[in-house]
Amino acid sequence: MERTGWPVPPHIAKENALKTWLITGTSTGFGRELVKAVLADGDRVVATARNIDHVKDLVSAGGDRAVPVQLDLTRPDQIARAVDAAERAFDDAGIDVLVNNAGIGYFSAVEEATEEAIRQIFEINVFGLSDLTRKVLPGMRARRSGAIVNFSSIGGLRSFPAVGYYSATKFAVEGLTEALHHEIAPLGLKTMLVEPGPFRTDWAGRSAAETLPEREIADYADTAGAQRAAFRQETGKEPGDPRKAAVAIVTALKAPSPPRRLLLGTPALELALDHLKSLETEFRRWEELTTSADF
């Protein structure tokens, strides 16, 4: 006979409760689809964008489970206000999941890049992500519950011509997230790196159009130049479906043991495995010289 009326253990109650997600960059691409997937799964969302008019339809569809918040990651004051608003959005429930999705691209050979463009991409993709994470962590630590999901890229595992600075920011996100995992896992908190391959988010189209270098050096026409052209030509034809990616992220994060890295799309898997083989081959080739440096 089933017994009723027993108190639910706090950790079980927390697992079964609605989760509050704070997601950055929700006006387009992965962020927008992730808001839809989270709401479809029954959770609550604080959807951020630099212009909240761009997320009104998402918030309206979410009813009382969705709240819009303005957030420009280059503005520390907005970061602080956004976290405070998210913590209090649903009866002071706090933030259960932070998704650092917002970011920009830059298509340039290393030599062609301008200092202004380099600093801008690091300001948003690395420093903004870091600032927001540090603001969210105190609440998660206090509750001993929460997850940080950081968007990296297959370009965070291996780089390609024309996206050296973009990849550099994603390599930074990878290193930061690895360290964070070791620091917060003992506190009951989780991290997950999302590493997509090519997806139909119009990322390459917008970035290629808006962030071309001020000058293009002819010597790089067959490397960075050719890669830029390839990105533009493939815009809208990429094999990855952002909607399926969003569902995969929600599914992975709610698994009993979420992956620390989630590759998304067949190209990402193939490129990552190929890169691992390449690294091992080179390491083994130089193993004797490598070990000769020991005392």
TrEMBL record:
Where is the secretion signal located? none
Which sequence ranges are marked TM in the entry?
A: none
Annotated InterPro entries: NAD(P)-bd_dom_sf, Sc_DH/Rdtase_CS, SDR_fam, SDR_oxidoreductase
Q: Is Secreted set as a keyword in this record?
A: no
Tell me which Pfam families the record gives: adh_short
Query: What is an example of a GO molecular function annotated in this UniProt entry?
Result: oxidoreductase activity
Source taxon at top rank: Bacteria
Record flagged with keyword Oxidoreductase:
yes
Looking up SUPFAM superfamilies in the UniProt record yields: NAD(P)-binding Rossmann-fold domains
Which keywords describe this protein according to UniProt?
Oxidoreductase
Which family is this protein grouped under? Belongs to the short-chain dehydrogenases/reductases (SDR) family.
Give the protein's recorded name: SDR family NAD(P)-dependent oxidoreductase
**The organism's taxonomic lineage, starting at the top:** Bacteria, Bacillati, Actinomycetota, Actinomycetes, Micrococcales
